Amino acid sequence: MSIKNKVLKSVNLDGNLRCVDIFERPDGSFGFEEYRRDVEDGKGWFAIGGHGDRNHPSVNAAFQEARNKVPWLNGQLNRKR
Hints:
Layout: E1 6-12, E2 18-24, E3 30-37, E4 45-47, H1 59-69, H2 73-79
Antiparallel strand pairs: 1-2, 2-3, 3-4
């Protein structure tokens, strides 16, 4: 049985071709990753940000770092308010 991260929040860019997941690891640390998908491919989501291995002490710290590192994320969050 594989051990998986638990996604706590997922924010999609309009068009649903990119997203950022904020997650908790089994060891209690937190992280985030940016993903993309190609509709014509059909293989699902692919990590593209290179952020998934970074550890953050809290979900809020991971989310703030995601907002700093992923250029489109703040604009998308502002549109949903």
